[in-house]
Amino acid sequence: MTEARGATGAAYRDGAFLVALDVDGTTIHHDGTMSPRVRDAVRAVARAGHHIVIATGRSVIATLPVISELGLKHGYAVCSNGAITLQLDSGLPGGYEILETVTFDPAPALNLLRGSWPDAVVAVEEVGVGFKLSAPFPDGELQGTLRVVPWEELVSAPATRVTFRSPSGTSEDFLELVERIGLHGVNYAVGFTAWLDINPEGVSKGTALEQVRRRLGVEPSSTVAVGDQRNDLEMLRWAARGVAMGQAPVEVQDVADEVTLDVDEDGLVPVLRSLLV
């Protein structure tokens, strides 16, 4: 059962909901697997007529397998922390088209971060392709074509998302780092490890989801979002019913209306089942 921290129940049962779901730590376990209980619950909510919208920091390439496993053939998805919005259509090549791409100049932020952490590596997203890298990332952390390039090429073109990563640091280290150096003119979020995502200023999962909500014609009061990390803060504030996973950091739980079970306990399932009552 979920722990209610705000209004739930009948107010969320009328009409179709927009249900925004984070991927890693919410829909997917930390080992990269999806529970059959979660998969079946997502499919049941979709069959009931609600709009399932994946909202993730993942790239397009890394998001598509999750969409496929969930059986989502139509609708929308938000990738790269809101910088990319997809329309899903099984009739299109690849099963989707990109509706919107928001970019920024990564050079000021990256030049500020350069040399700020001893073993840090940088990835600059190439939409639908992969990433340009300052040095190799740990195996399995990024998908697509990965190219190590000179720093000048890394910062040379507009980007949707930049990742700054340390294999040796912690999330607390990176929170202190961004406080110390000051990042301006961008939107950023520190992950549960030493992982810093940088996006265009004013862009978040929440801003992209608001555009999707308007396209769908869903009322603001019929929005639900579930997430577990700092890049979900804006999304949880945006939703009428924001739900934090049980393992979420305190600052994420504090902005949520509810806190459900840990991802290892399939905490997403009771939230989804509450929409089927």
Describe what you observe in this structure:
With 277 residues, the chain is α/β, with parallel strands linked by helices. The protein has two domains: 3-101 and 203-276, HAD superfamily/HAD-like (Rossmann fold), CATH 3.40.50; 107-200, Hypothetical Protein, Haloacid Dehalogenase-like Hydrolase, Chain: A, domain 2, CATH 3.30.1240. Helices cover 27% and strands 25% of the residues. It has nine helices and 15 strands. The strands form two sheets. It has a nine-stranded mixed sheet with strand order 1-15-14-13-2-3-4-5-6, sandwiched between helices. It has a six-stranded mixed sheet with strand order 9-8-7-10-12-11, covered by helices on one side. β7 (121-126) and β8 form a beta hairpin. It is globular and about 55 Å long. The model is unreliable at 1-13 (pLDDT under 50).
